[in-house]
Amino acid sequence: MSYLQRIQACHHYERRDFLAFTIDNEIFGLTSPSFAAELLRWSDVFSQQDQQLLLNPNLTTFEQRSEAVAVVMAQLYQEGVISSWVDEPYAVAHAFGDTPKMTVERAAASYLGTRCCGIHINGLVQKQDGIYIWVAVRAKDKPFWSGKLDQIVAGGQGIGISLMENVIKESAEEADIPATLACKAQARGALHYCSQSHRGISIDTLFNYDLWLPEAFTPVNTDGEVDEFILMRLDEMAMLVDTTDQFKSNCNLVNIDLLIRSGVITEQHPDFKAITHLLYAPAISL
User: Which of 152, 173, 191, 212 is most enclosed, with most CB atoms within 10 A?
Assistant: First the structure.
């Protein structure tokens, strides 16, 4: 594969395969017909009209919507329709920072097809012979992407917490990075992608950070989600992204963005225009 193919792997979906999930006549997600059929068992919460899945308009408040949908998702998880559970509420909104219409369980978000956000941190080390990067090896017992390579810290953006608060929280949980160091992480923009899978569709925004770490610092996982950390040269990471599938797919987007900003991928690359056009594409319009 190649850098461009890594990006393309995160940008594939067929809009016609999904129903528009609407709240108060506004589209907030894309839901597969098969999952919609499960939701329609709760006729007091969901209904279908043409190519739209509608949330009951009699649910008029944030609390009413969130509670009603939570009951449905919990039951579908108990039945095995939803394959995992995180117990973390995600905001349902058009974009990060907008007033949410309700919340949905993180593990159910892709089934419902609502927008999700996360933070990804590049753990960088400047040495005499160049730039190095700490890479996490995901635990082999994780339900998704087990054993794949990841950023030193990455986590979903739950409701009710700021981006920097999440950076600090996830840094402590995943790599034992103290708050006094984590708060120095530098925001480097956001990447958007939309990817179809057996779970539905991931319509995601990744908020990316660079964190320069002392050469003497060694990360330690504290939440059991990482088997080990590896310190590698930036050009070694570039080779792995370009020629192997060792990284979790959306982590490749963050890696490629870093490689562009670091001057590893330049305008001389034959796919540079295509890479930057797709990597920095705006969020899809629902």
Answer: 152
Amino acid 246 reads Q
* Residue of 278, 244, 285, 271 whose CA lies nearest to 8: 278
Strands 115-127 and 130-138, by their bridges, are antiparallel
Structural domain harbouring 62: 19-112
Q: If you search the block for the tokens 């007033």, which residue do you land on?
A: 99
Specify which residues 230 forms β-bridges with.
135
Looking at 112, 141, 162, the residue that finishes a domain is 112
Does 286 fall in a domain? no
Query: What span, in angstroms and rounded, lies between the C-alpha atoms of 284 and 28?
Result: 12
**Percentage of the chain exceeding pLDDT 70:** 100
For residue 1, the model assigns a pLDDT of 67
Indicate the pairing of strand 102-105 with strand 89-92. Answer: antiparallel
d(CA 40, CA 35): 9
